[in-house]
Amino acid sequence: MKTITVSAKGQIALPKEIRDALHIETGAQLTPAIKDGKLILEPVVTVPKSQAWYWTAAWQAKVNASMKAIEEGKFETFKTAKEAKKRIGA
After folding, report:
1. For residue 61, what are the domain limits?
2. Cα 43 to Cα 30: distance, rounded to the nearest angstrom
3. pTM of the model
4. Which of 2, 20, 42, 55 has the fewest CB atoms within 10 Å, i.e. is most exposed?
């Protein structure tokens, strides 16, 4: 098992094998947490502000409900956009 040494400034260097396995590149941001006495580092995933609405709890609930309906076969298919518009009254 490899060990990591903490520098005088509290810095650590992640071994290349770990960086490669987790696709951690130079400049990546990680958030630290302590769980059951262990240090957990999670990559920060940033989302452009223009797309942040998709990740709100309300929108994700709609997405999950839609996925469930699809899995249960509760959907319709249309051959044309005109048919779909007619179905929704547009």
Report:
1. 49-88
2. 4
3. 0.52
4. 2
